[in-house]
C-alpha cells in the first residue's frame, strides 16, 4: 500500500539472496536446493539446458561424485568440460567428442606432411644454390625417392609431440583407431570453428 | 566326459558380472564387454552409468555399437586419468597444435616463395632475356 508521488516507480528486489532460487539441477530433479548444494554454483537456474544435458549423458549422481572428488577451484572447469563432452555425445551418439579428437589428429598429420614437403622444397632450392656444393651432382639430383626419404625424416621428428594424444597409441584396442581413420566416420562437428577458439568454452 | 560349454552362453559378460545379474542371451552389453576385460565396463559404469550406456546403445544402429562402446570407454578412461578435463584436454592441445602448424606452414610457404622468386631472378640474370 505504497503511495507513489508523480514520477516515482516501484522496483521489487528479492533480498533473500541466491540461495532461495533452486539451481537448475534441483529444479530438474525436483528437490529442495540446499545451501550446500554441490551443483548450485555451476548450474544456475537461468540455464536449465546445461544441467539437463549433463544429466542425460552422465547422470546426476555420477556428476555429483565427480565434483565431490575435486577441489573447489577445479570444479567449474570440470563442469564445463563435462558439458562440452555431453553436448558432443548428444550430437554424435557414436563417437562423442572422440570424433573431434580423430578429426584434429588428421588435421595435424596433414599439416605436418604439408610442412615437411615445403621444408624439403626449401632444402632442395638451398642446396641447388650453394656454390660450394655445385660440383657434387648426387647432392642436387634429388629424385622422388630422396625427397620421400627427407619427408619421412622430417615427419618422424615433428610427430613426437603427437605421441601422447594419438588415439592409436592411447587405446588398448586397435579397432577404434582404424574406424576413426576413415573419412566416412569423421563426425560433422556442430561446434564452432575450433581453430578460432582460444578456449573451448568461453 | 564333461561337455564343453560355450563361453558365450555360460560366462556372464563383464557388465553382468559387475552388476551381479544374470547375463541373458539378449544382454545388450555382452557383445561389447567381454568377461576378460572387466576394467572396460567398470570405467564406463563409473563415469556414465550402466543405464545411460544402455540407452546410448539402444539409440545407435547395431553396426555402430562397437564404436560407440569404444569411444565411451576412451572417454571414461580419459576422465579417470584427468578428472578435471577428461578428453577435452586432448582436444585443447590438438587445437593449439593445429594453429601452431598452420602458422609455421604459412611462414614456410612465404620462405619458399621467396627462394623460388630468387631462383627465377637469378636464371633471368644469367641466361634470360636482354634489354
TrEMBL record, chain A:
One Pfam assignment: LOB
Chain ranges of the LOB domain: 21-122
Record-linked InterPro entries: LOB
Top-level taxon: Eukaryota
Family: Belongs to the LOB domain-containing protein family.
Name this polypeptide is given: LOB domain-containing protein
TrEMBL record, chain B:
Species annotation: Brassica campestris
A biological process from GO: regulation of DNA-templated transcription
Domain LOB: 11-112
One GO MF term attached to the UniProt entry: DNA-binding transcription activator activity
Family: Belongs to the LOB domain-containing protein family.
Taxonomic placement: Eukaryota, Viridiplantae, Streptophyta, Embryophyta, Tracheophyta
Stated name of the protein: LOB domain-containing protein
Single GO cellular component term: nucleus
PROSITE patterns hit by this protein: LOB
